[in-house]
Design goal:
The protein is α/β, with parallel strands linked by helices. 36% of the residues lie in helices and 14% in strands. It has a 4-stranded mixed β-sheet, sandwiched between helices.
Length: 127
């Protein structure tokens, strides 16, 4: 089983360090994923033998921050989300939880899906 982990994508070093400190108090490890690993299946990033990627690796890049939470229990999940809204951390709209559906995706695929979902939610709120 994967220990409680948050994968971070495109966080500035100071934000990553602050997040790591907050998460450590909850027993959550925070791991930065470098851009050169974005094409790697998420499962492989976590050491999960997920088999082949679900789809061909998408080329491209993205620069906005993104988080993927893995194996957090309900209390850790809720408290971590509360801490993300605290002072000193920027708003990170693109957040996901590891699922059997996305474990074979890479960061580009996850980013594309989260961006579509975020846009649809924003559009639905009229903002």
């Amino acid at each position: 089983m994967i220990p409680p982990t948050v994968l971070t994508f495109n966080l500035p070093p100071d934000v990553h360090a602050r997040m790591r400190g907050l998460a450590a108090a909850l027993g959550i490890r925070v791991k930065a994923v470098p851009p050169e690993s974005f094409a790697t299946p998420i499962g492989a990033m976590l050491g999960i033998p997920a088999g082949p990627a679900d789809a061909p690796a998408e080329a491209g890049c993205f620069s906005d921050p993104m988080l993927l939470m893995c194996s957090l229990n309900e209390a850790q999940f809720n408290r971590f989300l509360q801490l993300l809204r605290g002072p000193g951390l920027p708003r990170i709209p693109l957040k996901a939880v590891l699922t059997p559906h996305n474990v074979g995706w890479n960061a580009f695929q996850l980013h594309a899906e989260l961006s579509r979902e975020h846009e649809a939610m924003t559009r639905g709120r009229g903002t």
